[in-house]
Amino acid sequence: MTKRLYHGAAYYPELWDEEVIEQDIKLMKEAGINVVRMGEFAWSSIEKEEGHIDVSFFVEIINRLYHHGIETIFCTPTATPPIWLSYQHPERMYVDNEGRVMGHGSRQHVCTNNPYFREKASIITDQLATQLGNLDGVIGWQIDNEFKCHVGECMCNTCKTLWHQWLEHRYQTIEQLNNAWGTHIWSQYYHSFEQIPQPGATPFLHNSSLQTMYQLFSYEKIAEFSDEQASIIRKHSTAPITHNGGTFFHVNNERLYESLDFASFDTYADYKNYSAYLFNCDLWRNFKSSRNYWVMETSTSYSASLESYAIPHPNDYLKAEAVASYALGGEGFCYWLWRQQRTGCEQPHGSVISAWGKPTIGFENVKKVEKARKEIEDSIITTTPMQAEIAITYSDNARAFMKTEPHQNLNYRNLIIDFYKNILQLGYHRDLIPEGATLKGYKVLFTPFIPYLSDEYLAKAEAFAKNGGIWIVGPLTGGRTEHHTIHTNAALGKLDELAGVETLYSYPFDGTGSVGEFKGVKAPLSLWSSLFHPIDAKVMGTLTEGISIGMAFITERNIGNGKIVMLGSFPTGDEGELLLKTIINHYANEQGVTVKAQVTEGTIIVPRQGNGYLLWVIVNMDGKGGKVQLPYNGTNVLTEKTVEKGEHFINGYDYQIVKFGQD
């Protein structure tokens, strides 16, 4: 349980003079900023010349901010190596999959696996932790900034050597790799690990195994870099450590956060796409479930660069974002950035204060966030989010598999958000959980869009079902091995046997006119889909139109005290949403899921548990206002007035907190 709620912004005092810094501190206090994040791009300011590290400026700034009630999360500045590290050293630079060597500038231009970079990164991190680690104002650390945001898998010579070592560790012998990858296809057989290429330019497509394994290799190497930085910091500081991640970046977030203390993310979701914002909150809450997460970056109004810009938020939307995040388990809500940058490639980006020191279009909305933070803080810090009864498994490894095999531009992130928003719209409290998470406390588990399911996951999910849960598997799940090849014992490998089915066909439904029916509801079906013959299962959904009429796309098998349900295809369009929601409601009702609310679309309920009482934090996210059905009489915490059970209205982008139970 958190002790306070933080409201902050990214701050770059190294870019401004003393007069501006004094003005910034005054304006921060006016805006209600109680924490800043800094240092992330300051390597050239701290170490202008190689070997001459001077941290005194930041020591003074941190102490001055703390004196004014503003705490600091300090960042290691390794995302922007200075010119002395990269100039005339192409061997240190990032190389893309077309063989292009990055030049100095922007950020992430150096390969994080390069040994010289690693050495220098370790030295500056050690110095920062030594000199800043015990300052009262430093409450946390952020490692680097948005790993693999602008770059994917590096193809430099350092990475090539590490790639071969990684493969040898994974496969032990070249024969085992050849067998696993099936390299006799197109004469891709290798005689040694050193012969295996990186997935650079080729006339056609790479072997799927090579393409996916290189992504997993890259995932592991960037996580190892994070581990190394965290280990250095812990020698000198007890403050918790994080990294500001995202689902767009080329990382395995579950692996990345293993060695970190709390999870945080950056988001610039359009206000119309609020479900993507809530998706992040529900996911990051579960990467480090022992601690509250942070929104480390979001825009006060709009994001922008020299080349692009986003639509500004409507007034009051920022307040709804903040309250929703705090309610869903967020401890900090921070902006990028405090003062608009007067130079560089992100000059047009939204901020709290303009480059010339005046409030921006977002400033008044920042003040509204601060008013809301103060108003809800006591309610939030004395309660915790309730245990959800519905979980959806999220997998960055699945994202790698789908990047290799996108068919017609399939995108894992978009698919799972589309799936998630149907559960959100039905009013269910829900968790997005990584593959390794416990399933304790859940009643219904969804596992969509994960091509490869590990033996560990299959065993865990089987046990979940046997103990009384309903496990709903698919679509696009289980059809690939760990090496990104096709099963040869059954279409979905072990999953066929567990589900009591024989998967007869897997083919793309788009363009075939396929329509499926479940519980009297019909809808078009889409994506690469699977059809089942029941062996020890019951048919629940069949095709009524298309080229496989009468065949099953939904089955269920009783196993122990629960069920395994196979969902072989993804319903599409408005009718598809109705069908998918019918499936969700059917199995949630069968399981007696009660942690939900009756709300109109665009409004969310976040249930939080206190000591002998229940809180509902109600937030309207679409600006249209909404209706909510209160199940009991309660008390409006903000007005201290009694509210009766039944239908209540909430205004656009507004929030309410209702307490049920003891006074």
UniProtKB/TrEMBL annotation:
- Tell me the Pfam families matching this sequence: Glyco_hydro_42, Glyco_hydro_42C, Glyco_hydro_42M
Q: Give all residue intervals belonging to the Glycoside hydrolase family 42 N-terminal domain.
A: 11-375
So what does this thing catalyse? Hydrolysis of terminal non-reducing beta-D-galactose residues in beta-D-galactosides
Keyword Ribosomal protein belongs to the record: no
Task: Give all residue intervals belonging to the Beta-galactosidase C-terminal domain.
Answer: 603-659
Q: Which family does it belong to?
A: Belongs to the glycosyl hydrolase 42 family.
UniProt GO MF annotations:
beta-galactosidase activity
Q: Which keywords does this chain's UniProt record carry?
A: Glycosidase, Hydrolase, Metal-binding, Zinc
The enzyme's main class, written as a single word, is hydrolase
Domain of life, per lineage: Bacteria
Q: Which InterPro entries match?
A: Beta_galactosidase_C (IPR013739), Beta_galactosidase_Trimer (IPR013738), Class_I_gatase-like (IPR029062), GH (IPR017853), Glyco_hydro_42 (IPR003476), Glyco_hydro_42_N (IPR013529)
Tell me which SUPFAM superfamilies the record gives. Answer: (Trans)glycosidases, Class I glutamine amidotransferase-like
Full protein name = Beta-galactosidase
EC assignment: 3.2.1.23
